[in-house]
């Protein structure tokens, strides 16, 4: 269990983490989500007592990190895969960490085996690829067999096999009843691994809810209809008491909360030609972008297709639902 | 947090990087080698020296002539022991494992200084005996007045130079910055300022100039100016520098974000 209370970090005039309070519960994977620069890494460094908070506290199993005797046996962390001495072998890098926390030497070989680095255990870690470095970092996190594990963007730069491996590893560790706290800026990745979500933007808490609640609240499903007889179809739908929103950009109608089958039957009854009848589901990535749109620090202003602006054009269709979610989330 | 566990871990860190052995081997070989060269040179030219020079000739000090260069390797050793934690990013992993800053820093400094002391003493005794053998009739025995103090002191001096460098690096948190300041300081600035009457009054309180007094057995030699402190006073001044650097390093580590 990790508890954050009013955690705040200011660098000069800039507030990187702003009064953050939440708990990370055992037995589940908690995703820590936010755009780049939202303060995820700073928060994680404060959790490990590497950075001093301006205000607030973090407690690991009820204790301040600095008061943990042999902390690697309580909490293991992967913050930066490159945080090892490149001139030292993988085995020796782990050995000096193990010795400082009185972890038996045999455990070093065990974790190297677990992450699949046994064949390169005696090799200097500076020759490691990003994926191997990431595995070494994960081995160091697992060294003390801790109840709490923390990973900062663990899938960054990994190949699909590595990503799958980390995903399964985290799920397996959570299934053993451990506390898993993992950060990411990719909603799609979190949707596959996390059971619970903590979303931050510009250092502030935007949402703290279960993954299923997030999906329920944010993934709007609707049906898209296209027809050369749009006005007629609109009248028919209106008579049937169905609200349709036309999207001028695509020339389509979007209808919420009515199954595609019923719409198809209705069109057939009135002999209306349909060019498209397709059930749609707004992606979680889109929902995440809407949630954090106001707090993204570095907007890309590419001509024509800026992501936040593009999202805004679709806003009339389901902006109302989104606003309700935001109020619920905040 | 058991301090012995930290010591064990720091010992593993120090023995598993290549820079440890090459810097320490350099310190020993350069000091012993240059000292031996100078001793054989002095030995062959002894009869050409002036009467005053002969009278105040310090054979012990002469056998440490290579130390002013050899100490530069000791500085590199001290800088790298602390500096690579920062340059590699290892510091965050290290502090996550040993969150108490005092345990971490003093564990590291204890192990590294102990190793520097062992190598320093090996260097000073080797340098002394080889130097005296080359000086032949003009040499001095280890049993003479103050000689053992000077020889052991030379070893302690090397360890303190290393520890001073570790402290400075902990303050600066960068190997490159620390080397950029320490190397020119000890190699050039201290020597140059010590060579002129006007600046010597300040330079004599620099850590190397004060500390190296411990290696002298003859005071007021012709090419040395009288200092307002003796061998032990000089070592004391050096110790104050070392303490200040280490304390500064500790405060920086404690206050700043890793």
What's the SSE pattern of chain A?
EEEHEEHHHEHEHEEHEHEEHEHHH
Q: In one word, what is the shape of chain A?
A: elongated
Kindly report how far apart the N and C termini of chain B lie: 20 Å
| DSSP summary: helix tally of chain B | 12
The main sheet of chain B comes to:
none
The percent range for helix content of chain A is 25-40%
Q: Mean of residue pLDDT of chain A? A: 85
Protein name (chain B): ABC-2 family transporter protein
Pfam families (chain B): ABC2_membrane_4
GO molecular function (chain B): ABC-type transporter activity
GO cellular component, one term (chain B): plasma membrane
Notable features of this structure?
heterodimer, A: 330 residues, alpha/beta, Rossmann fold, Alpha-Beta Plaits, 2 domains, six-stranded mixed β-sheet, four-stranded antiparallel β-sheet, 12 helices, 13 strands, 37% helix, 25% strand, elongated, disordered C terminus, B: 258 residues, mainly alpha, 77% helix, ABC-2 family transporter protein (chain B), ABC-type transporter activity (chain B), ATP hydrolysis activity (chain A)
SSE diagram, text form:
The complex is a heterodimer of chains A (330) and B (258).
Chain A: E1 2-11, E2 14-24, E3 29-33, H1 40-47, E4 55-60, E5 75-78, H2 90-100, H3 106-114, H4 130-142, E6 148-152, H5 160-175, E7 179-184, H6 187-193, E8 196-201, E9 204-210, H7 211-218, E10 221-226, H8 230-239, E11 244-247, E12 252-256, H9 260-269, E13 276-281, H10 284-292, H11 307-313, H12 315-329
Parallel strand pairs in A: 3-7, 3-8, 5-6, 6-7
Antiparallel strand pairs in A: 1-2, 1-4, 8-9, 10-12, 10-13, 11-12
Helix pairs in contact in A: 2-3, 3-4
Chain B: H1 3-15, H2 18-45, H3 51-55, H4 59-62, H5 67-88, H6 90-97, H7 101-135, H8 147-172, H9 175-195, H10 197-203, H11 207-211, H12 231-255
Helix pairs in contact in B: 1-7, 2-5, 2-7, 5-6, 5-7, 5-8, 5-9, 7-8, 8-9, 8-12, 9-10
């Amino acid at each position: 269990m990790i508890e954050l209370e009013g955690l705040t970090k200011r660098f000069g005039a800039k507030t990187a983490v702003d009064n953050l309070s939440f708990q990370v519960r055992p037995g589940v994977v908690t995703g820590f989500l936010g755009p780049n620069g939202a303060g995820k890494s700073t928060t994680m460094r404060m959790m490990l007592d590497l950075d001093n908070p301006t205000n607030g506290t973090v407690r690991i199993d009820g204790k301040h990190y600095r008061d943990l005797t042999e902390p690697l046996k309580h909490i293991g962390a992967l913050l930066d895969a490159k945080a090892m001495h490149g001139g030292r072998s993988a085995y020796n890098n782990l050995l000096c960490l193990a010795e400082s926390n009185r972890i038996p030497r045999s455990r070093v070989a065990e974790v190297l085996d677990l992450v699949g680095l046994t064949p390169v255990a005696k090799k200097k870690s500076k020759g490691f690829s990003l994926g191997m470095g990431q595995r070494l970092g994960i081995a160091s996190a697992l060294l003390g067999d801790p109840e709490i594990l923390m990973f900062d963007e663990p899938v960054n730069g990994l190949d699909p096999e590595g990503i799958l491996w980390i995903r399964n590893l985290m799920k397996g560790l959570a299934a053993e009843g451990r506390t898993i706290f993992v950060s990411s800026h990719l909603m799609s990745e979190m949707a596959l691994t996390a059971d619970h979500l903590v979303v931050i933007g510009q250092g502030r808490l935007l949402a703290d809810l279960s993954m299923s609640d997030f999906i329920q609240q944010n993934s709007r499903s609707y049906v898209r209809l296209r027809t050369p007889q749009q006005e007629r179809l609109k009248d028919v739908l209106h008579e049937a008491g169905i609200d349709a929103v036309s999207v001028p950009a695509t020339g389509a109608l979007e209808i919420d909360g009515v199954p595609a089958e019923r719409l198809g039957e209705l069109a057939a009854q009135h002999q209306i030609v349909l060019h498209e009848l397709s059930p749609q589901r707004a992606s979680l990535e889109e929902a995440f972008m809407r949630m954090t749109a106001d707090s993204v620090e570095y907007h890309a202003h590419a001509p024509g297709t800026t992501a936040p602006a593009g999202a805004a054009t679709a806003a009339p269709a389901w902006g109302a639902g989104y606003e309700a979610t935001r109020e619920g989330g905040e | 947090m058991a301090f012995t566990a930290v010591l064990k871990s720091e010992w593993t860190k120090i023995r598993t990087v290549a820079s440890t052995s090459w810097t320490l081997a350099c310190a020993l070989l350069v000091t012993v080698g240059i000292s031996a060269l100078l001793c054989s040179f002095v030995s062959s030219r002894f009869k050409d020296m002036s009467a005053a020079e002969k009278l105040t000739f310090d054979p012990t000090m002469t056998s440490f002539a290579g130390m002013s260069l050899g100490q530069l390797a000791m500085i590199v050793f001290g800088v790298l022991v602390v500096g690579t934690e920062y340059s590699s990013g290892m510091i965050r992993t290290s502090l996550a494992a040993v969150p108490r800053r005092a345990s971490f820093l003093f564990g590291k400094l204890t192990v590294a200084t102990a190793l520097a002391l062992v190598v320093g003493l090996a260097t000073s005794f080797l340098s002394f005996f080889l130097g005296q053998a080359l000086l032949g009739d003009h040499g001095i025995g280890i049993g003479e007045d103050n000689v053992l103090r000077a020889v052991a002191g030379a070893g302690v001096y090397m360890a303190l130079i290393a520890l001073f460098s570790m402290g400075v690096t902990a303050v600066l948190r960068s190997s490159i910055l620390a080397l950029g300041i320490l190397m020119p300081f000890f190699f050039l600035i201290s020597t140059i300022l010590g060579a002129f009457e006007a600046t010597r009054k300040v330079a004599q309180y620099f850590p190397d100039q004060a500390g190296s007094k411990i290696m002298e057995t003859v005071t007021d030699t012709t090419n040395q100016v009288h200092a307002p402190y003796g061998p032990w006073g000089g070592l004391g001044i050096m110790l104050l520098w070392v303490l200040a650097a280490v304390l500064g390093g500790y405060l920086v580590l404690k206050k700043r974000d890793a």
